[in-house]
Specification:
The chain is mostly beta strands and 244 residues long. The chain contains one helix and 13 strands. It has a single domain (2-239), classed as Porin, CATH 2.40.160. A twelve-stranded antiparallel beta barrel has the order 1-2-3-5-6-7-8-9-10-11-12-13. It is globular. 29% of the residues are buried. Mean pLDDT is 88; it is low at 10-23.
Length: 244
């Protein structure tokens, strides 16, 4: 019920907030596919949101996931991120058990611009993040198919600890509807070392609420037998503070 109330309130805000210009920012939210673009030199961009992942009788809440990006130059971007998480387990007749909120997935990283899009050459960047719980390296690419369609894709590795790794990959298709709304669908997956791969399918909507503000809402499911969650529902926002 709490999740439904949060989603309802966000939808009211999502649909009633601002009727301004098309967003001028490129965000990593809310997909697994990272943006191939960097924030502008001197600009500060904040991306934050909420997510509820369900697996059997457990709910995994990301009460807040925040990423801060800063443009050092046209070629280099610095990044820091942190999640606030909480789990709830339904024990049937024994009631529910809820953990205390705790901070997870703290990371610092850098993104470096490699190539500008030119005909069949994609926009391309590489990024590396180091964290206590998880570190990763990613190659991010994107193509503008036409005025309305854009394809983005990410290839990389993440490292839960010093002794294991998994391949990560994703592709997202974005369709711009008029000036404010963008629909997207994403196929993402991972292949842990010595384990079976996992694939997820996600659908969502982006709303350009202003020249430097984006709102999002999304839902998805794991489509393979091997899974870390059954379904996910989330929403959030991103805004940029340009250099004056």
């Amino acid at each position: 019920m709490v999740v439904k109330q949060r989603v309802t309130l966000f939808l009211i805000f999502f649909l009633s907030f601002g009727s301004y210009l098309k967003a001028q920012i490129n965000t990593d939210r809310p997909t697994q596919t990272s943006s191939s673009f960097l924030v502008s030199k001197g600009a500060l961009q904040i991306e934050t949101g909420y997510a509820n992942r369900k697996f059997n009788n457990e709910n995994f809440f990301t009460l807040n996931s925040t990423q801060i990006r800063y443009g050092v130059s046209r070629k280099i971007e610095l990044r820091v991120s942190q999640d606030l998480s909480q789990n709830r387990i339904d024990r049937g007749t024994n009631g529910t058990f809820t953990t205390d909120p705790n901070f997870t997935n703290a990371q610092i990283g850098v993104r470096v611009h490699l190539l500008d899009e030119d005909k069949w050459v994609p926009q391309m960047s590489v990024q590396a993040n180091i964290g206590v719980d998880l570190s990763d390296v990613r190659l991010n690419m994107s193509h503008n198919i036409n005025r309305d369609w854009c394809i983005g894709y990410t290839l990389g590795l993440d490292f839960p600890n010093a002794f294991s790794y998994r391949a990560i990959y994703s592709v997202v298709a974005n369709y711009a509807m008029r000036d404010k709304f963008t629909l997207f669908t994403e196929l993402s997956g991972n292949s842990p070392r010595f384990h079976t791969k996992e694939l997820s399918l996600t659908f969502g909507l982006l709303f350009a609420a202003g020249p430097n503000l984006q709102l999002d809402i999304y839902s998805g499911r794991t489509i393979t037998a091997v899974k870390t969650y059954d379904s996910v529902l989330g929403f959030g926002l991103a805004f940029s503070l340009p250099k004056k």
